[in-house]
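Appendix C reproduces, verbatim, an entry submitted by the partner laboratory led by Prof. M.T., so that reviewers can inspect both the input and the predicted structure.
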Amino acid sequence: MLVLHIGTHKTGTSALQAFFAAHTDELDRHAIHYLRSGRGAGKAHHELSWAIRGRHGADLSVWDTVRAELGANVAGTQVISSEAFWFTEPVAVREQLRDIKDLRVVMYLRRQDKYLQSLYKQTVAGGRRISFAEWREKYRFRGDYFAVVQQWAEAFGKDNLVIRPYERGGKTVDIVIDFLGYLGIDAAEEFEGRKRGRNNPSPRRELMELLRAFNQLDIDINRDKFFHEVIGRNKEYVRSVDLLTHEQCAALMEDFAEGNHALIGEFYRDSGPLFPELIPGDRPQIWDADSPEYFAMLVDLLDAVWMFARDPALGAPDPSKMKKNRRRGPKEIGP
């Protein structure tokens, strides 16, 4: 059987892929084969989606090596994982997988108010410039799970879709334990001592706004390294959901209420709820601009900027390019 894990983003996908990449040989001994082709030197199989979408220079020939590896490992369960598939035409994926019959498409879904806040923050860490409100207006289709799931059902068959909730019992699932459990492996027993980490954190609201201001300069640096340099200085710089009030979250969820109802009724087969109830609660503390915490964060950010500016290996910017780019209006990047 082939298990195609397609995300979504911000549901622990990076942690799952890091675990599978680090334990590939050990998983093979449990008859779970995490494909080595299609992920280059990385942990996830993003190249497969990129090749179909014409992104990042990936070539469709990568699918040839994947099909060869799938054909050479017919026993047990084979796994391909990339949240980039969520943005890929399912029919095109089906064409590349060709005559594979025994296949499951697994996806984890997070309540949309949390998903969209966290996804937007990730794009800001990657260089995006517009506000959350502008982003929501431009990408109204983000969060329309029902429309995407319908497409996968049409391409692969309704009965081959597996929808897993990202939250159970008031907290996020440990996706490694949950996914391995679906594959029939007791991770707590087989991988005793495994530490649960955050592989793709989001910046807290205050830091996100500073990063968005920094993005206006269009400085050419490795933004992933820069972001992790900043948040590595204080664990309080990381927070997933703090952009919207309860009322705003409720209004956002109302936009998806009809689609979610149809999604649950037609495709969801788990015994528990797909999404946790939206309950009013205290909003996370936001640091005032005159607070010592905000000042320390600003110092850390400026120190990281200075460190990257001095070190060519980190992508030191060309001053003339900076001056030129500062004259341009805001641009948009990313998916």
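The two ends are 31 Å apart (CA to CA). Additional entries are available on request from the coordinating office.
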